[in-house]
Amino acid sequence: MSDTESTLVAARRLEGEFDYIIVGAGTAGCVLANRLTEDPDIHVLLLEAGGKDDYHWIHVPVGYLYCIGNPRTDWLYKTQPEAGLNGRALSYPRGRVLGGSSSINGMIYMRGQREDYDEWARVTNDASWSWNAVLPVFKRSEDHHAGASESHGAGGPWRVEKQRLKWKILEEFSRAAQQTGIPATDDFNRGDNTGVGYFDVNQKRGIRWNASKAFLRPALKRPNLTVITGAHTQRVVFEGRRCTGVEYRGDNTDYLAKARCEVILSSGAVNSPQLLELSGVGNGARLQSLGIEVVNDLGGVGENLQDHLQLRMAYKVDGVRTLNTASAHWWGKLMIGVQYALFQSGPMSMSPSQLGAFAKSDPDDGALTRPDLEYHVQPLSLDRFGEPLHRFNAFTASVCQLRPSSRGSIHIESADASAAPLIAPNYLSTDHDRHVAANALRLTRRIAAAPALARYRPQEILPGIQYQTEEELQQAAGAVGTTIFHPVGTCRMGTTDDPGAVVDNRLRVIGVEGLRVVDASVMPNITSGNTNSPTLMIAERASDMIREDRRARVSGSIAAQTSPAPSMSAV
User: Fold this and answer.
1) What is the dihedral of CA 429, 431, 433, 436, to 10 degrees?
2) Which of 61, 284, 342, 361 could form a disulfide with 294 if both were Cys (CB 3.0 to 4.6 A apart)?
3) Known catalytic residue at 486
4) 258, 18 Cβ separation under 8 angstroms
């Protein structure tokens, strides 16, 4: 009998109820499980559809290559064919394991820009979502390699380190970017991420530091936390409009878990809207057409999908070594393995992207007040993800638009919880996004043509120099564009009178009781950078809110019990 099976057998014997049930042990779920169980009076059940994070490739940074597309760790979702991508459908990786996507992602520590959070505060009419308010929350989690400062925290569970490698071609790309007007920076996380430099990463001495290690493992020692893996939640259960528990399936058996206080969906931008719709919360007409009883007609569920589309540009170079040739032969691979085994450094400690840059797509546009592009630069090239590296030296500069105006959706097409939802990102569906994409390709060519790279005679192999006009560049963007794995916004927060909002400013699902969503799906607008650590911050804030609400309920209950009985005349 496996560990998962024995856990589920034990679960059949559980009696009583939990205070909180968290659905999804990804980044947000791990944070919530840790923070809520710091109070010994709070009993929490954490459900995860995937298994334990004991697969060795999760922990070796380069192991993302073996985790993405692997059913052991990935939901294996795909998008619908995308008109903006010339009819192509994309793989859409999402973590299905303890730690969620933090167990398979690029490990890049990125907060985004000050203005992102100030806009959240405006949309929610709540200043507690502003940059100045959330910065202390980021710092509380953080254990930054440089120690505590005005911008960073130390001693928290979320380890942030410098990368343990450098590449000559990346150093020269950085110089070339500076020669085109992008300044050097040593920190992308002060609220203004303008500049070029190496990314900081969520690693500890060259090993991936996922949310499971940082938050869940310390909490597992507490008797008030129950974690069940292999538990695929089918729907949340309502009595009237109050959420009272969840139904989940594991080991070919159906279970019902009851929640005294709340159910918290932390299943991510794909699965949280899916679960809401399966449970009768969403567009009423859509749900009725699938035979699902409507609990709350909430049209915003599954809408407002945003993602960062990266445009992969690859350049063949001469006179400088890249990973393509460093790993081309068995002895090169052996030396790379030995370097990592002895020192946890070198190519096996690489995050998927090492060098970053934030820049404006049109420096002459006076209305563009902050960077709207992010680069992920790598000392390697390949035709597409999962295929072998090219046999010649090359680098890849992937550039994504940070604040796309295109909006997509995620919706169920069946009442069967095991059926994947329809994922339609709707990339490059606006004139603005297509124009920014063309400008992004132009900027990359200017960097590649800068003096610092000239000695290496870069030759564009992807998408190719045949694309020159605005129309051709937009076509090229559709040909090479792919997700950088940052879906957000499908249960967006807003004010209660906002017809597109799904949760309020305290992440409570609008129109029902006892149900919250806490994950990247609540972002009203995507952050200007990688989305994992902003999701962690959201969960930190949510844990505070949940405990505050719990204390208010308890004190209100005590006050009601101790208040004098009304007099007959008052009655």
Assistant:
1) 150
2) 284
3) yes
4) yes
Domain that holds residue 110: 1-75+91-125+208-306+487-530+541-551
Q: What is the pLDDT along the chain (571 residues), one digit of tens a residue?
A: 344 433 433 444 344 589 999 999 999 999 999 999 999 999 999 999 999 999 999 999 988 889 999 999 999 999 999 999 999 999 999 999 999 999 999 999 999 999 999 999 999 999 999 999 999 999 999 999 999 999 999 999 999 999 988 899 999 999 999 999 999 999 999 999 999 999 999 999 999 999 999 999 999 999 999 999 999 999 999 999 999 999 999 988 999 999 999 999 999 999 999 999 999 999 999 999 999 999 999 999 999 999 999 999 999 999 999 988 887 665 666 776 677 676 677 776 777 899 999 999 998 888 899 999 999 999 999 887 778 889 999 999 999 999 999 999 999 999 999 999 999 999 999 999 999 999 999 999 999 999 999 999 999 999 999 999 999 999 999 999 999 999 999 999 999 999 999 999 999 999 999 999 999 999 999 999 999 999 999 999 999 999 999 998 877 765 555 544 333 222 2
Torsion sign across C-alpha atoms 340, 343, 347, 353? positive
Alpha helices by DSSP H, 408-522: 431-448, 451-454, 470-480
How many structural domains is the chain composed of?
Answer: 1
Burial class (CB in 10 A: 0-12, 13-18, 19+), 335: middle
Phi, psi of 14 (to 5 degrees): -65, 135
Residue of 152, 376, 411, 486 marked active site: 486
Residue 118 in 3-state DSSP?
helix
- Are residues 489 and 350 in contact, defined by beta-carbon separation less than 8 angstroms? no
Output the six-digit token pair for 177: 């970017």
Class of residue 176 by CB neighbours under 10 A (exposed 0-12, middle 13-18, buried 19+): buried
Query: Is residue 224 a part of any domain in this protein?
Result: yes
In a domain, 415, yes or no: no
Annotated binding site for FAD: 97
Within a domain: 332: no
Binding-site residue ranges: 97
pTM of the prediction? 0.94
Angle, vertex CA 233, rays to CA 229 and CA 238, nearest 5: 140
Q: Please report, for the domain that includes residue 510, its CATH number.
A: 3.50.50.60
How far apart CA 510 and CA 503 sit, in angstroms, is: 5
